[in-house]
């Protein structure tokens, strides 16, 4: 694509000054590294959750702000959700199921992680959903505004601090409940899955095993090719329909050249029914790119309200719309019909908003500007997106400009490993499940092969982003039922082994 848009930092900056707190996340993809993990980081977002579907008690815990220094910082209130209804109790060593809260309001994750709730009665387990620091209600310095003020106040938003929070919380909770001997099993999806896997590696004395679903622990530095994410999204469309794939691939040039015409932006604004006039054609391209990416992540076999309300097999639906438009309909109209499946499935949208994150700055952008540097590019020959190369320098400039912070792209692999992950884990790690669905664009950065007998990969060809953690439904295909059954069996094995060892010690 000769005239595909160039990375336009100035565009981002101008948007920033225009909207003051405009988030770079979606608007900047794909020219910027995509940050699709940040979708839930709508900080103080209460969201349209409705009444919780699971029963829990909400508690708060005074948490240390900096676990790695003895500086005199104020503590903060960490929120956690707890259910002890099914728990066998300390005497019978009832297990503790612990979901590693990720980048967002913990109630949202609790509502979307039905698997843990369904499993707990069977294992007579306690359930705990702790919130990740700097998200939801778990704000240092008393409020979102104070916590997100500047690089100094944000400094303690790191994965290591979050893991230490979990470790301290579990340890103290066990002490309070005299539950020292109760085994802890970790769960997590996406970034939460990364945390679960890392927690098992860093704190093996605290948790006996981890189910890490859709956890791209290898999406760092050059461990996997930077184009995997968009190549997988593109593959998801291609497998449904080549003409759909081609229509999307051809649309970028059309959008770009339309944007350069007189009144072109007005035309694009009308065609795509935006509430306010487009500032640039890139904004439209980014809006579309992010829809395609989320469609790939949420490409579930049944209707769901995960990222947005979507039909079952949503990419199939999008492609059906694009392909079935009457002859003579323009590429842009086809694209509009297709993307409406994502942005207007409920049919209740009057006009579209470009900036779909009204809460401004979000924590994931900070994390992406510090530790979570996940290189992304778009390949010329496989991707349906405009081709672009990963440019670390431009990301770094963006971070310095917006957060006054310089990323440390090699820190995560230094801290948690990545290069030679398999060999390292084979000889010292155990009891981790990496579960993935190959339709999920993040699967390319995860672990797709068994590392050892106890660090195993459960891969489904037709799964999407942590589908296995969702509540079971009557429409679950066999392969999903089997994947979950395999997970249950492995977790049973860990618990069995733990109890056996305890018994041996006891008998001695
Ligand atoms: C950040 O904000 C805090 C709290 O208001 C203030 O004490 C500190 O000096 C600020 N730091 C920077 C680098 O601006
Ligand atoms: C443990 O109990 C103490 C004293 O009641 C309480 O302050 C603390 O929050 C409890 N810890 C947890 C993790 O709930
Ligand atoms: C959303 O869908 C409804 C129902 O099909 C339609 O009336 C409405 O115009 C659509 N909104 C936009 C912005 O396209
Ligand atoms: C895509 O391009 C790369 C580098 O230009 C090349 O190595 C690779 O074989 C190509 N793949 C396909 C499917 O054409
Ligand atoms: C990467 O971005 C920097 C900063 O925006 C720019 O100066 C440089 O030319 C870019 N490199 C490439 C290869 O495009």
Automatic annotation (TrEMBL):
Record InterPro entries: AB_hydrolase_fold, Peptidase_S28, Ser_carbopepase_S28_SKS
GO cellular component: vacuole
Keywords for this protein: Glycoprotein, Hydrolase, Protease, Signal
A Pfam family: Peptidase_S28
Key word rRNA processing present: no
Domain of life: Eukaryota
GO terms classed as biological process: proteolysis
GO MF, one annotated term: serine-type exopeptidase activity
Signal peptide: 1-27
SUPFAM superfamilies: alpha/beta-Hydrolases
Family in the record: Belongs to the peptidase S28 family.
Cross-referenced PANTHER family: LYSOSOMAL PRO-X CARBOXYPEPTIDASE, PROTEASE S28 PRO-X CARBOXYPEPTIDASE-RELATED
Name of the protein in question: Lysosomal Pro-X carboxypeptidase
Lineage start: Eukaryota, Viridiplantae, Streptophyta, Embryophyta, Tracheophyta
């Amino acid at each position: 694509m000769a005239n595909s848009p160039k990375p336009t930092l100035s565009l981002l900056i101008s948007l920033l000054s225009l909207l003051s707190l405009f988030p770079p996340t979606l608007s900047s993809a794909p020219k910027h590294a995509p940050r699709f993990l940040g979708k839930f980081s709508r900080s103080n977002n209460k969201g349209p959750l409705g009444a919780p579907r699971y029963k829990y008690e909400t508690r708060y815990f005074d948490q240390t702000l900096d676990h790695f220094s003895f500086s005199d910082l104020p503590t903060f209130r960490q929120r956690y959700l707890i259910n002890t209804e099914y728990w066998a109790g300390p005497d019978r060593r009832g297990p503790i199921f612990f979901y590693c809260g990720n980048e967002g309001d913990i109630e949202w994750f609790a509502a979307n992680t039905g698997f843990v709730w369904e499993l707990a009665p069977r294992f007579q387990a306690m359930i705990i959903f702790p919130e990740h620091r700097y998200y939801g209600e778990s704000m240092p310095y008393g409020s979102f505004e104070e916590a997100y003020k500047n690089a100094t106040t944000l400094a303690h938003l790191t994965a290591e601090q979050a893991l230490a929070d979990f470790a301290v919380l579990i340890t103290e909770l066990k002490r309070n409940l005299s539950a020292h001997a109760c085994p802890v099993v970790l769960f997590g999806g996406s970034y939460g899955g990364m945390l679960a896997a890392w927690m098992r590696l860093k704190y093996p004395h605290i948790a006996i095993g981890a189910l890490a679903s859709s956890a791209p622990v290898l999406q760092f530095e050059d461990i996997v090719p930077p184009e995997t994410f968009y190549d997988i999204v593109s593959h998801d469309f291609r497998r449904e329909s080549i003409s759909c794939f081609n229509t999307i691939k051809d649309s970028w040039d059309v959008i770009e050249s339309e944007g350069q015409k007189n009144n072109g932006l007005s035309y694009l604004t009308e065609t795509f029914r935006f509430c306010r006039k487009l500032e640039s054609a890139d904004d439209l391209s980014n809006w579309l790119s992010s829809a395609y990416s989320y469609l790939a992540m949420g490409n579930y076999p049944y209707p769901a309200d995960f990222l947005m309300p979507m039909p079952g097999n949503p990419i199939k639906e999008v492609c059906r719309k694009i392909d079935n438009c009457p002859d003579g309909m323009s590429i842009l109209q086809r694209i509009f019909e297709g993307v409406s499946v994502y942005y207007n499935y409920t049919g209740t949208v009057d006009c579209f908003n470009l900036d779909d994150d009204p809460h401004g700055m979000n924590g994931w952008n900070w994390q992406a500007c510090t530790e979570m540097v996940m290189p992304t590019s778009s390949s010329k020959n496989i991707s349906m997106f405009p081709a672009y190369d990963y440019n670390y320098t431009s990301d770094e400039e963006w971070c310095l400009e917006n957060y006054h912070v310089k990323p440390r792209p090699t820190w995560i692999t230094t801290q948690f490993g990545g290069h030679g992950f398999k060999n390292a884990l084979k000889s010292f790690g155990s009891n981790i499940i990496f579960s993935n669905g190959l339709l999920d664009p993040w699967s390319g950065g995860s672990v797709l092969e068994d590392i050892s007998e106890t660090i195993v990969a459960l891969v489904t060809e037709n799964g999407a982003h942590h589908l296995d953690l969702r509540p079971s439904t009557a429409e679950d295909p066999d392969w999903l039922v089997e994947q979950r059954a395999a997970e249950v069996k492995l977790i049973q094995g860990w618990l069995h082994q733990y109890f056996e060892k305890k018994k041996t010690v006891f008998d001695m």
